[in-house]
């Protein structure tokens, strides 16, 4: 959410930020609506004052026995009361329109975000590992002999429809091991607090984390009105909504392993093979709530947490900073990590680490009290995948594949797999 006062003070800067995202100028429309709202509020307050003045005069007229004046004032008060109610209703309607307009405007990009139109303009800032050179034609994850029988899309389609999967046997165990390894690493090495968070949330939580009103079609809503979370960013971040934290409480660093649900309304026909893009998937999320002065450093720290997972799994990756035209709605700056997938012979996104600045905090009124006793200020919120479990499974299987259809698994997963490191071509761990 944008600060209307900042738009009033510098409308040109606001429009320039929108232009960097490729959006049209909106300050004149916003300020016209804001001016109409403020004028209506002032008019209602003036009418309210007149009503109160007339109400006080009623008693004086009655005490004097001036029945004519008494009746005149009663009529005036009734008229003013109706007038005030109408003006207040109009002001409330204008306020709702302004709030809705501001809620649909994306965050302003940080100054160091590269200018660009789409993913082709993203800038690579880091590369780790060397893509494996196979002596045979690499297969995609669902084509690997030891995997194919345990990755059942037909049964899932029968039960749930397209873009779902049944993981069975050893592959299901490897998937679970990856999630456990990620959470343990974030808790034991990265200092995050593990949270078992809900996957059903209210409208307010989706709105506060900028998923509503603009992107409702990309998520699933129950008949009871709750939303299935698109990511645990929603419950973790919204957990501080309405709070005034002590500065000493910051930073708050949380991680949660949950199911996630996305309708992918705008992605028809994309990545329909395998389990790269599913309606239901699992993710280990990282969320930080921090002091504004530390948010840029915190984003870099979170990025290293996510990169460290891939390095421990020995998965080659590259890191890019998203350009202005490719950033998400609420992001001020986003780093994407793309893992190497031999089956596609390319890098594919496996994590996004974003800072929203005070954009989400303003929507959900999350603040902190400065240690020096100053006025409460908005916190900064950040979120990042650490990592998407299903996509990480894909990367592990494709990078570890052997010509005979078996898969060599990363050493760090052995403790979670009973010491076993080979997924045989028969689908059995050994």
Explain the overall architecture:
With 430 residues, this protein is an alpha+beta fold. 40% of the residues lie in helices and 20% in strands. The chain is built from twelve helices and 18 strands. It has an eight-stranded mixed β-sheet. Strands 5-7-6 form a three-stranded antiparallel β-sheet. Strands 8-14-15 form a three-stranded mixed β-sheet, with no helix packed on it. A hairpin with a 7-residue loop joins strand 14 (367-369) and strand 15 (377-378). Helix 3 (27-64) runs antiparallel to helix 4 (67-103) and helix 7 (169-188) packs across helix 12. The model has no long low-confidence stretch (mean pLDDT 94).
User: What portion of residues belong to β-strands?
Assistant: 15-25%
Mean pLDDT: 94
Classify the oligomer.
single chain
SSE run: HHHHEHEHEHEEHEEHEEEHEEEHEEEHEE
Q: What distance separates the N and C termini?
A: 53 Å
Strand segment count = 18
Main beta-sheet annotation: 8 strands, mixed
Structural category is alpha+beta
Radius of gyration: 28 Å
How would you describe the shape? elongated
Widest beta sheet: strand line-up? 1-11-12-13-16-10-9-4
Count the helices. How many?
12
Low-confidence stretches: none
State the helicity in percent bands. 25-40%
């Amino acid at each position: 959410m944008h600060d209307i006062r900042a738009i009033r003070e510098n409308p040109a800067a606001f429009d320039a930020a929108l232009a960097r995202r490729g959006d049209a100028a909106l300050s004149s429309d916003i300020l016209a609506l804001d001016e109409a709202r403020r004028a209506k509020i002032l008019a209602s307050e003036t009418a309210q004052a007149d009503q109160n003045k007339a109400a006080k005069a009623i008693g004086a007229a009655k005490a004097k026995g001036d029945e004519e004046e008494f009746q005149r004032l009663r009529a005036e008060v009734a008229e003013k009361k109706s007038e005030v109610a109408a003006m207040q209703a109009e002001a409330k309607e204008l306020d709702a329109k302004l709030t809705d307009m501001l809620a649909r405007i994306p965050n302003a990009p940080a100054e160091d975000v590269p200018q660009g139109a789409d993913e082709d303009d993203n800038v690579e800032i880091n590369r780790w590992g060397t893509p494996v050179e196979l002596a045979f034609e690499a297969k995609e994850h669902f084509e690997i002999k030891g995997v194919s029988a345990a990755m059942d899309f037909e049964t899932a389609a029968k039960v749930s429809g397209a873009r779902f999967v049944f993981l069975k046997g050893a592959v299901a165990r490897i998937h679970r091991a990856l999630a456990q390894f990620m959470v343990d690493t974030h808790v034991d090495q990265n200092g995050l607090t593990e949270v078992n968070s809900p996957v059903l949330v209210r409208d307010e939580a989706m709105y506060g984390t900028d998923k509503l009103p603009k992107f409702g079609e990309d998520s699933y809503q129950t008949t009871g009105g709750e939303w299935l979370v698109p990511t645990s960013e929603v419950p973790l971040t919204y957990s501080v909504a309405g709070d005034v934290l002590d500065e000493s409480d910051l930073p708050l660093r949380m991680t949660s392993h949950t199911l996630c649900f996305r309708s992918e309304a705008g992605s028809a026909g994309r990545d329909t093979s395998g389990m790269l893009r599913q309606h239901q998937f699992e993710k280990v999320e990282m969320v930080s709530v921090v002091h504004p002065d530390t948010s840029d450093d915190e984003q870099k720290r979170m990025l290293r947490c996510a990169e460290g997972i891939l390095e421990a799994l020995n998965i080659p990756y590259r890191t890019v900073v998203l350009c202005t035209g490719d950033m998400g709605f609420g992001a001020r700056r986003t780093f994407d990590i793309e893992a190497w997938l031999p089956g596609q012979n390319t890098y594919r996104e496996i994590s996004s680490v974003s800072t929203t600045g005070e954009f989400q905090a303003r929507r959900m009124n999350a603040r902190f009290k400065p240690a020096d006793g100053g006025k409460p200020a908005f916190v900064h919120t950040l979120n990042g995948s650490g990592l998407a479990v299903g996509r990480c499974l894909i990367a592990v299987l494709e990078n570890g594949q052997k010509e005979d259809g078996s898969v060599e698994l990363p050493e760090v997963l052995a403790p979670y797999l009973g010491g076993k490191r080979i997924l045989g071509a028969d689908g059995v761990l050994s």
